[in-house]
Amino acid sequence: MSRLGKYTRRAFLGLGVAAAGGLAVGFYFYQKPYANPLDAKKAEGETPFNPYVMIDEDNTITIIAPRAEMGQGVHTTLAALVAEELEVPLEQVVVEHGPSSPAYFNAAMLEESTPFPFYDESVLAELARGSMKIVAKFLGLNMTGGSSSTTDAFVKMREAGYAAKFVLLKAAAEHFGTSEDNLTLADGTITDKASGKSVTYGELASKAAAVSPPSEMKLKKASDWKILGKTQKRVELKDKVTGGRIFGIDVQLPDMLYGTVRMAPRKGVSLKNYDKTATLAIPGVKDVVEIRTITGEGLGVIADNTWAAFKGAEALEVEWDDPLSLQNSDQMWSVLENALTQEATFELGGTGSDAEVFTSIPESEAVSAQYRAPFLAHATMEPMNATAQHDGSTIRVWTGTQAPGLIQSVVSSHFDMDSADINVTTTRLGGGFGRRLEVDFALYAAVIAKATAPNPVKVTWTREEDTQHDTYRPMAIGEFKGQVTPDGTLKTMDMQVASPSIIQSVMPRIFPGISPMGPDNTVLDGAFNQPLDVENIRCQAHVADLQVPIGFWRSVGNSVNGFFHESFMDEAAHKAGKDPLEFRLAHLTSDEFRPAREALKRVAEMSGWGTPLPAGKGRGIAHVLSFGTWTAQVVQVDVTDNTVTIEEVWAVADPGIVLDPGMFKDQIMSGINFGLSQALGQEITWADGKVEQANFDTFDAMRMYQAPKITIELLENSPRMGGAGEPGTPPSTPALANAIFAATGKRIRQMPLSNEIDFI
Amino acid sequence: MYPKIPLTVNGQKQEIEADPEMPLLWALRDIMDIKGPKFGCGIAACGACTVLIDGEAVRSCSQPVGEVEGEITTIEGISQGDELHAVQQAWMKHSVPQCGYCQSGQIMAAVALLEENPDPTDEDISDAMTNLCRCGTYPKIKAAIKDAAQTLGA
Ligand code: FES
Ligand code: FES
């Protein structure tokens, strides 16, 4: 199923010693991607050990959740997997992102949570080809994407919990001089039924560490789950309602300085001249340093408070050297328009029908449309920031990152150091959405910290810097054509998408030596891989570089192609004279598309689809399968005086297995509002080689007064486990555009929809 | 070199030395090490930095510290010891936060709203709560405010 699967390190469950007298349960990993029996023997003594569960003598139970917590509840869900098997309530465990003490520090573990876990060229190329899986693994948030890595975590975390329980029970049997059958477990203690005496897990920990781990994993059946499958409280909830110091921007260290950056408009533009006189004259400013890195060039300002650094950066006189030919958005659109007229770069999916089928559609049966989507910034609520410190031979970095291993890799190569000497502490993230998979903010902090050494420096970007130096969601044009036969059947569908390639942009920023090969799925995600029974399908990519750094943005290619594909389905239904729901169902007849059919039917019921609405109101429907989750949505709008109010949204998502329904629905809700936000007016445009938007006044997102009522239901028909964080986003925009069409007869084919109609 | 600025923060009188032009947000975060108010935009457009000055919601990023008149309350100052404020409790009950970054500002804005209008309608809430949440938690914020209003009114 997954290409990543075959590279996943083979792991053996084992035990280790935690803090004095404690127990640690986790996995031994082989270093090599390709483990063979000989390697296994040889490697045994030196395999790194990754603990997932640690039990201290004082009965503190710590669960390691080595994934970025950025709002999706991944720490809670990963902990729940362990707690379920270990028979402890979630409230009784402490969840930590990663190795908290040097004793547990181990690079392999951090690498596990990076998009490119292996530094072998062929593997990277392979990963680049299977980019969707990378995205699924790391943006798809917790148990995502149906990729084997996730399924792997789903099993692995529970196995660690089971193994801990297994050895604790054995230790308890010995302790009481009885058999395991006479023992009961609850809330982190084991009780001997006969004597009524209890012993805590912590008291048993050191004894348990000497017991051999189980050879067979007897995980609980889903029907016996007490924690999984039920809504849990976020483990970090209290911190988040008390203004807790949990984010990267809250890091405070002794003798810390403050800084910010003023970077060239984009990668490829270099630092030519600058005058720092005015900056140094600002009280509190200490120094200005040059930054020349693989992700960009510019200047860093060091001060004794953040505000002085901001003022200092503003006061800099800088001259850039900009050799790039594409300076404004019009030029960029022309490049994409031109790319569409060129031969396709690659194609994916499709029915393999003769090319002629697509060029010989009779005029009367043809439906065609061109759609556009702009660049978008991530606009995470917490602006980019990182704290760094050089202390002799090592560099320490504290930051909210989705990829600590990448930071190690890029920072170490910048300073020509060993990656083991780069120590990354991952804080909670004030939003990620894919932006915090990048390394630029951490790298710049590390460069500035060289100048402040031995003092640490916290480098915070202004919102303007953040908006103007993002790795944007790529802009794209989709040219869609179809044939609707007189009986209302979509017989042929041709999808041509022109866009830059995310992988081609990401790789040189992170692994400059490696040239990505093969098709970048992300260009066509959401178009080529949708459930659709149509006789002739073709899906082709026209890749064109626009000289703008682009990256992973919540739901990635699906955010673009979902809009194109589902808008087009609505247009085809209209051409066929059919109801958009009926039309979709008529083209979803294969057995394997049952989750799509069920999701659509259910969302139709919930929304009262087909029942009459007063004039000026309309409903739109869409379905997108992304990250393994089948998601159908209906949006209802009111259009009065040419102004749209998004009244209500109904969504049905089917991820196969739901580990935490509350958390899952939260993510779908968040994804919907994130998607709708772009329709309301988000757009990154270029003029004179610079991004025109700067702060929330020019790049805003949905506010409370615009937020629709949202009702969500979950289904479990899908045979595989899907993600939660992203699938809510793609169907929201086409469902909205389709609703506006239903209400007004006006078809809007470009994002943001606000360019053609007003929203409240 | 900087003048001394007297402030009352969360009930504590203190004096800081700072450029009077410095936004209150950075005085709180960088000088007083009070990290509850967050930085989001610096131009009063997002509300992440919301604090109360004499009970009224103020975007501290756009408030020069030298011009503060009145008592400052940050999110650190709204609970009574271990007992969270009713708004915070409602936030917990409804599991409002996702990434959580906007939430101290949202909570402070909600505290100010309920102070002024103990029984807000949906529309009152939409009008008063203009803080940005990139995670889109608005429906839950609304529900939590209504819940808190009931608790406080009871
Ligand atoms: S940081 Fe003050 S309103 Fe955004
Ligand atoms: S909870 Fe993330 S921005 Fe509001």
Automatic annotation (TrEMBL), chain A:
It comes from Pseudovibrio ascidiaceicola. The chain crosses the membrane at residues 12-30. InterPro entries: Ald_Oxase/Xan_DH_a/b (IPR000674), AldOxase/xan_DH_MoCoBD1 (IPR008274), AldOxase/xan_DH_MoCoBD2 (IPR046867), AldOxase/xan_DH_Mopterin-bd_sf (IPR037165), N-heterocyclic_Hydroxylase (IPR052516), OxRdtase_Mopterin-bd_su_IorB (IPR012368), TAT_signal (IPR006311). This is Isoquinoline 1-oxidoreductase, beta subunit. It holds the Pfam family MoCoBD_1. SMART domains: Ald_Xan_dh_C. Keywords: Membrane, Transmembrane, Transmembrane helix. PANTHER family: ALDEHYDE DEHYDROGENASE. Residues 242-325 form the Aldehyde oxidase/xanthine dehydrogenase a/b hammerhead domain.
From TrEMBL, chain B:
The keyword Oxidoreductase applies. It comes from the Bacteria. Keywords: 2Fe-2S, Iron, Iron-sulfur, Metal-binding, Oxidoreductase. Pfam families: Fer2, Fer2_2. InterPro entries: 2Fe-2S-bd, 2Fe-2S-bd_dom_sf, 2Fe-2S_ferredoxin-like_sf, 2Fe-2S_ferredoxin-type, 2Fe2S_fd_BS, Beta-grasp_dom_sf, Diverse_Oxidoreductases. Residues 3-78 form the 2Fe-2S ferredoxin-type domain. The keyword Hydrolase does not apply. Coiled coil: none annotated. PROSITE patterns: 2FE2S_FER_1, 2FE2S_FER_2. PANTHER family: BLR6218 PROTEIN, OXIDOREDUCTASE WITH IRON-SULFUR SUBUNIT. This is Isoquinoline 1-oxidoreductase, alpha subunit. It comes from Pseudovibrio ascidiaceicola.
